[in-house]
User: Which sequence fits this backbone?
């Protein structure tokens, strides 16, 4: 399984950005997928996840601003981010959980596969 994250870049505060995670070797529709982020000097934190049935779970800090979507035909998971602020600046990672049981996990250890990360910079 390989995950390829893309779409990061520099955006002004208040702006929008869409990240994409392309999976190979496993169908995203059969997996639990998530986005995590890690800012310099901070631990990796859960941002949002999508389950096999399409259920979602968002971190409180991004609710109402971020939207996760899954494109089964393209085998990708996208993260639409809006109203970005400097606190959102981080390296964003997509992750895949192959377990068939349980709901969306909000801790990194639950995910077996990770993308390489894409950097999001927000200027104030």
Assistant:
């Amino acid at each position: 399984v390989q995950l390829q994250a893309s779409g990061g870049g520099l955006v002004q505060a208040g702006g929008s950005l869409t990240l994409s995670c392309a999976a190979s070797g496993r169908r995203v529709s059969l997996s639990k997928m998530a986005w995590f982020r890690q800012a310099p000097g901070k631990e990796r934190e859960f941002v949002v996840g999508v389950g096999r049935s399409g259920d979602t779970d968002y971190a409180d800090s991004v609710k109402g601003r971020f939207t996760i979507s899954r494109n089964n035909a393209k085998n990708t998971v996208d993260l639409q981010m809006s109203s970005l602020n400097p606190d959102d600046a981080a390296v964003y990672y997509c992750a895949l959980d192959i377990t068939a049981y349980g709901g969306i996990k909000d801790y990194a250890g639950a995910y077996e596969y990770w993308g390489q990360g894409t950097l999001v910079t927000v200027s104030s």
